[in-house]
Each structure stands twice: as C-alpha cells, then as structure tokens.
C-alpha cells in the first residue's frame, strides 16, 4: 500500500488541512513527505495519524486486500471473456474509485478500464481513457508498459485502423520478455486475428495455433473457442475446406452448449463463407436467414448478413431487390458508406453490367483499397481481371492482377 496516499485520501475526505492533521504528531513538512510517499514513517506515526481521523489500520489493510482481490477478478474476467461478470465488477470498483486512486493498484485499474471500454466498444470512453493512460505512462512498470501498448493495439482495431494496430503488436515483439504471463494467449490471438485481416495466412496460422495451445493448457475454454474460430477462418481462406468444416461443426455445437450466442452467430456467419466457396448456396442461404432472424436489425452484423445473402446468388430478382432496399435503408448514416457501396453494387449487378464495371473500377475498388479492406478489394479486383481479360484489355487486367498478387499470401 502507498500508506502516504491513503493518509492523504482520508485527510481530504475529513476536510482536514495538513496543519490540523499534523498538530501534536509530526511537523507539517514531515506529513507532506509522508503523503507524497517520499518518506516511510514509523508505525507509531502512521497509527497516530489514522486514529486522529477515526481510521483503523487493520480495517484499512483488509480493505486494501479486498480491492486487490476485486481488481484481480476484474482482470480474470477480461482474460476469460466473462463480460457479464466483468461489467458487475466494473460497477463495484467504480464505487471505490477515489480510494483506489490512493493505492498502488491505480495503474492496473486504469489499464483494465481501458480494456473494458474497448470490450464495450465505447469509443468515447476509450479515447478519454487512452489520454489518461498517456499521462500515467511515466509511472508504469515494464509489464504495465507492455499492457498499455497491447491495449492501444486493441483500441486501433476497434477503430478499424488495422495497420496501426498491427504496428503496435509488431513493436511488442521487441519487448516480449516483459509480457505478463496471463497475456500470452491474448497476444497470440490478436496477432493471428490482425494477420488474417492482412491476408498473411501462414504467419496467422502459426499464432492461432499457439493461442489454441495456450488456452488449452490454461483451461480457458471460451477463448479457446475464439482461437479455434480464427483457425477455421484461416483454413477457409487457404482453401483447406475439409479442415475448416470440421472445426466449424465442433464450434457450432460447443458455442451453443456454452451459451455463447455471439460466438455461435460469428461461427455460422464464417461457416457460410466456406459454403459459398464450395458453391453450396442453398445451405448458405438457410443459415443466413436464420442469422437474420436472431440478430439486432440495426447492428453492423445484420448489415453484413444482408451483404452475404446478396452474394449467395438469390433465386429471384424480387428477393434480391427486397434485400437491397433493406440494406440501403439501414445504411443511411455517413459511417455506413461500406454498405451503401455494396447496395449500389448489387443493384447495378441486377440491371446494368456496363454500369457495374465502371462503378467497380471508379468507386468500389478505390474505396476498399483506401480504407484497408484487403479481402473485399481482392474480390473486386478478381472480377475486374475477368472482365478485362474477356474484353482483351490486357494492360488493365495486368494492373488488377498485380494488386492481387502484391496484397495476397505472405507479402510483407
């Protein structure tokens, strides 16, 4: 405990000046050094100061231990993805905020609050917490500095700034010896996830497999399911469809049995990508319509499901136009440009092939390229390659083929 900070906390709470508290016990300068934790007083001085404020030392020690235990549980909830319990722990800890600020628990508390806001996808609170941590960084230990950088990577992932996020993770490789042991699995998992987004599948598989091994060893079953989902996505992208399909079947069952509704929905959505790759569109549509009924209509995920449905070669133009209309209605905000672009794309695909290729080249491909949507950019590039080859426009076909090759595989 930072006993000086605790004494200052209670002095301020009791509306006492340093002069009033020090009177008859020690000098004002002595008390000032105690409160700034630059001097460790004799136990009798501590006792006298606390008694004067009506504070019992034994109860104070027990209170500190309780806060330490609660903070440890808050951290464990983060690591095991127990978000409901984490939310309850956060509410309890916030009630003790002023007290925690007076202890040596404050850095961990503020760091994991940052992680909590990222889990909640609360960008405003996460931004404020990021600024606070930048002011505290000078007091961080080596493991706390490592965590701060790791959480900043997660923060930029939340903002969809994946290149910035990956840069933070790559920099952490240099200080890997400072990694808190409990965070090895999280580090491997996040590295694998970001590498998938950048189409670096071989390296991603390496980190995903390490995450799976870590979570198995430490009996972290929910995060194990998340890591297995990464592996299944990785195998799908590498055309290892039998291996991916086996993992998806196990994941669907286990996510359902453990009540992980969001994970189940994510598993089904990614399994659909595998089915589309195998051109099994009927089953893909059935699963997507099931998802459509079970997720919030105005969520990002719902709009992604609409796009995926429109990619399944719907059997009637009426169905397609109904989905395009719904997607356009839901993508009215400026932040929804990604989905508006898709709504325009599917509409043009239904009515005008010439308009479609112009739109792909002048609007869709540049948008994906500028905003780091590598997978989507490659899909559009592949369509443009096919179009220009059919029209014997070899120079343009070569341009898009070069893009695909440069951004695929293990290009660094």
TrEMBL record:
Return the SMART domains for the record: HTH_XRE
Please verify whether the record's keywords include Repeat: no
Domain HTH cro/C1-type stretches: 7-61
Coiled coil recorded as keyword = yes
Which Gene3D superfamilies does the entry link to? lambda repressor-like DNA-binding domains (1.10.260.40), Tetratricopeptide repeat domain (1.25.40.10)
Signal peptide bounds: none
Q: Which residues form a coiled coil?
A: 83-139
Which UniProt keywords are given for this protein, alphabetically ordered?
Answer: Coiled coil
Domain of life (superkingdom): Bacteria
> What is the protein's name according to its record?
Helix-turn-helix transcriptional regulator
């Amino acid at each position: 405990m930072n006993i000086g900070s605790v004494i200052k906390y209670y002095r301020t709470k009791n509306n006492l000046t340093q002069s009033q508290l020090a009177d008859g016990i020690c000098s004002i300068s002595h008390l000032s050094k105690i409160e700034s934790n630059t001097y460790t007083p004799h136990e009798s001085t501590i006792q006298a100061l606390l008694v004067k404020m009506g504070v019992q030392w034994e109860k104070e020690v027990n209170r500190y231990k309780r806060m330490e235990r609660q903070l440890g549980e808050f951290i464990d909830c983060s690591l095991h993805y127990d978000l409901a319990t984490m939310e309850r722990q956060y509410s309890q800890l916030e009630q003790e905020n002023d007290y925690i600020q007076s202890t040596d628990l404050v850095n961990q508390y503020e760091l994991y609050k940052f992680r909590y806001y990222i889990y909640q996808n609360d960008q405003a609170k996460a931004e404020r917490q990021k600024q606070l941590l930048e002011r505290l960084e000078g007091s961080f230990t080596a493991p706390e500095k490592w965590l701060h950088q790791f959480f900043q990577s997660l923060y930029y992932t939340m903002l969809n700034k994946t290149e910035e996020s990956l840069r933070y993770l790559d920099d952490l490789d240099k200080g890997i010896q400072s990694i808190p042991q409990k965070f090895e699995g999280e580090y491997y998992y996040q590295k694998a996830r970001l590498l998938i987004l950048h189409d670096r599948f071989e390296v991603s598989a390496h980190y995903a497999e390490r995450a799976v091994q870590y979570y198995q060893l430490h009996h972290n079953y929910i995060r194990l399911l998340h890591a297995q989902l990464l592996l299944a996505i990785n195998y799908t992208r590498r055309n290892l469809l039998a291996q991916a399909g086996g993992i998806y079947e196990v994941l669907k069952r286990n996510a359902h049995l453990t009540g992980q509704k969001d994970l189940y929905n994510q598993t089904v959505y990614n399994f659909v990508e595998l089915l589309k790759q195998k051109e099994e569109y009927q089953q893909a549509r059935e699963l997507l319509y099931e998802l459509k009924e079970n997720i919030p209509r105005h969520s990002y995920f719902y709009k992604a499901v609409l796009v995926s449905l429109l990619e399944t070669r719907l059997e009637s133009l009426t169905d397609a136009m109904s989905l395009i209309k719904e997607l356009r209605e839901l993508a009215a905000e400026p932040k929804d440009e990604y989905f508006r672009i898709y709504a325009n794309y599917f509409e043009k695909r239904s009515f005008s092939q010439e308009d479609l290729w112009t739109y792909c080249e002048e609007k869709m491909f540049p948008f994906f390229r500028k905003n780091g949507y590598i997978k989507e950019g490659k899909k559009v590039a592949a369509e443009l390659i096919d179009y220009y080859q059919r029209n014997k426009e070899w120079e343009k076909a070569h341009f898009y083929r070069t893009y695909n090759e440069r951004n695929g595989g293990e290009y660094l």
